[in-house]
Amino acid sequence: MGDAKQKEWLMRNLIQALPHPLLVHKRGLIQESNGAAQELLGLGPEKLQGARLLELVSPEDRDLVVRQHRALASGNPGACEIRFLGPGGELKWVRFSPALLDGGKGVLCWLLDITQERLRQERLQETEKLLESLLSGIPHGISVLDRDMRILLVNPTIERWYAHSMPLLGKRCFEAYHGASEPCGVCPVKETLETGQASQAVVPLRDKAGSQTGWLNLYSTPLRDVGSGELCGVLEFVEDTTQARLAQEALRDSKELLSRAFTASPDWISISRLSDGKYLEVNEAFENRTGYKREEVIGRTALELGIWVEPQKRQEAMGMLQEKGSLRDFEADLRMKSGEVRTFSLSVQILEVSGEKCSLAVCRDITERKGLERQLALSQKMEAVGRLAGGVAHDFNNLLTVILGQTDLLLMEMSKKDPARQALEEIRQAAKRAASLTRQLLAFSRRQVLQPKLLDLNSVVADMEQMLSRLIGEDVEILSLRDPDLWPVRLDQAQIEQVLLNLAVNARDAMPKGGTVRIETTNRLLDSDFLNSRGWGLPPGPYVTLRFSDTGVGMDQETRQKIFEPFFTTKEKGTGLGLATVYGIVTQSEGWIEVESSPGQGATFTLYFPAAEGAELLGTTGGGSLVGTWSGSQTVLVAEDEEMVRKLVCSVLRARGYTVLEAEDGLKASQIEETHQGPIHLLVTDVVMPGMGGQELSRRVKARRPGTRVLYMSGYSEEAVEGLGSLEDGAQFLSKPFQPDLLARKVKEILGNF
Ligand code: ADP
Ligand code: MG
């Protein structure tokens, strides 16, 4: 055997002996294959011998094989992975590495069966794809961290939440998710890493600026190495709970709001069981309004408590409730614990409380509104009746003028003995009575010509007292309580006398067995709250009131509502014009009359007249008529920096006859005092003024004019002013704001009659 031959033989045997699959081909035709290769490809040696290599390769991979062989010439092309076709058409994955044999003896091909490996790879890829679609499809966040808390994997949800800190991979979770430089205080990941246990926490979701935009529920589970079981990281599962939380909060808020509305409602609210009417819950307004404590009513019914003044009204309400399922603005009189009866508007709704049908009642106190409505209706009626009466009275007056005139003429011409004279006299008397009635009607309809003048109501009452007591009779005592400082009023004296007379006559009628009449006068400042609550349509301000009360039979509500109507009378011989006249006179004088009475309790009429004082000041017509009420003629120096106050003070004092020197501050006042020739009896000064204050001014004035008296005015209280620098002995003080009247009185007090 030649050398070459021997070599070839050796190789052949070697190939055959190798347990590794091998092929040798020459120009694509297989020359040699070993058992391992035959086994791998599933073809016997006879099938392989001389077969075309490319035909054994799956068509998709043939190009690859061709390219690899071309590369052979220029060096080692390395391995490629290709598919061989098995005899039954099945595919075998093979790692294929060709190498050139020496001397053009062909190509030696190493084959390695990688079918299992490929399958595993494919399966892995499939799993990966599955995992990926799982990760991207899930609406929750998923992230994997290593033991160092570094992010190994995140799903798109997490990327969306933390878009502002992308890229996330490789960063540590506290940096990426919380912008922190070290692990957060409460961190389930940290806990899982430390304990090896699953953990959970709620963490805030923040935007780039760090403001919270939501809440995340974070679950962390340990990841363990499959082999060693050692902890190798953490899987985070993150749920966005923002919506749920917001909804929960909204629910809680609205619940709280509801319960707050229940407690805070000014209307009383009660919940009672429909089946037996027992109260289940009441609010604070219920307690305040009714006077019943919660404990007193829960478990009892409104009927038991006697809250319904007319129980049949409750039945009516329940009937309507059952029929319509709800009740709106149902009016009813309800009795409070104190026994007081007030009018309410009820709105009731049926609702279910823990499976039981209940009624939710909202009750609004409309007593005041009702009163105002009645008041309005009454005054409208009085207005209409008044107009009618006035019209009739006017025509009557003309007729009576003719009747009286002609009767007088006839009487004058008639002889004293004429038998018709008696009849004519009676006609004349009757006509005179008719004329007097007509006058009263005119008074009621406010069509009289009033002659108002400044009056002291006290002296009117005092002057009338004698006459009234004669009129009322001996068994009725008259008490009069007159406010000595009563403000003047501007009224027609004759009309006021008429008013007192009519009231006195009625009082006498009401006290057939005697009693007491009490006449009181007082000053009252009526504010708009008070006036609005009454609906009288009077402007707020100072009023003088006259209360006329008796201890007589009194009257019920029905009578009380009608007494001012003309011709309303409960007396056999009554005219029903007395109070109508009073009403006409009082309202024509821009005042009001109010009556309080109940059967057997006597009656009190309260008359309000506007005080003349305010009108006097506003009109600034000289105060001639006021001379006598706290007036004087001395000289007063007024120092006040606030113009409005100064003007008011000056005009009040001038109206009272004083000579007034006006200064807009302390310095000016001091100058005026220096140059003024005559005496200065009084210095009226503000305490705090720019430049020179009131006390300094007072010191200067007094240094030159020791007899001058001082009256301080200040917005601060007397004590505060004293703290500011105590006032000298004997100094007088008036705190702002003050009534013009009070100023005049104070000045009068200080100056007296000197
Ligand atoms: P007359 O006195 O003619 O009845 P009035 O207008 O003066 O008419 O009074 C109307 C009604 O008001 C009276 O009939 C009486 O019922 C009632 N009234 C008036 N004053 C009193 C009073 N002081 N006490 C009780 N009832 C009174
Ligand atoms: Mg009368």
Give the gist of this structure.
The chain is α+β, with helices and mostly antiparallel strands and 754 residues long.
What layout of secondary structure does this protein have?
Blueprint lengths: L2 H15 L4 E5 L2 E5 L1 H7 L3 H4 L4 H4 L5 H11 L7 E6 L5 E10 L6 E7 L1 H23 L3 E6 L4 E4 L1 H6 L11 H6 L9 H8 L3 E8 L5 E13 L6 E10 L1 H23 L3 E6 L5 E4 L1 H7 L3 H4 L4 H4 L5 H14 L1 E10 L5 E13 L2 E10 L1 H47 L6 H25 L8 E3 L1 H16 L3 E7 L6 E3 L1 H18 L4 E12 L1 H7 L6 E10 L6 H4 L17 H11 L3 E6 L5 E8 L1 H8 L15 E5 L3 H13 L3 E5 L2 H10 L6 E5 L7 H11 L4 E6 L3 H7 L7 E4 L4 H12 L3
Parallel strand pairs: 17-19, 23-24, 23-25, 25-26, 26-27
Antiparallel strand pairs: 1-2, 1-5, 3-4, 4-5, 6-7, 6-10, 8-9, 9-10, 11-12, 11-15, 13-14, 14-15, 16-18, 19-20, 20-22, 21-22
Helix pairs in contact: 15-16, 16-21, 17-18, 18-21, 23-27, 24-25
The protein binds adenosine-5'-diphosphate (ADP) and magnesium ion (MG).
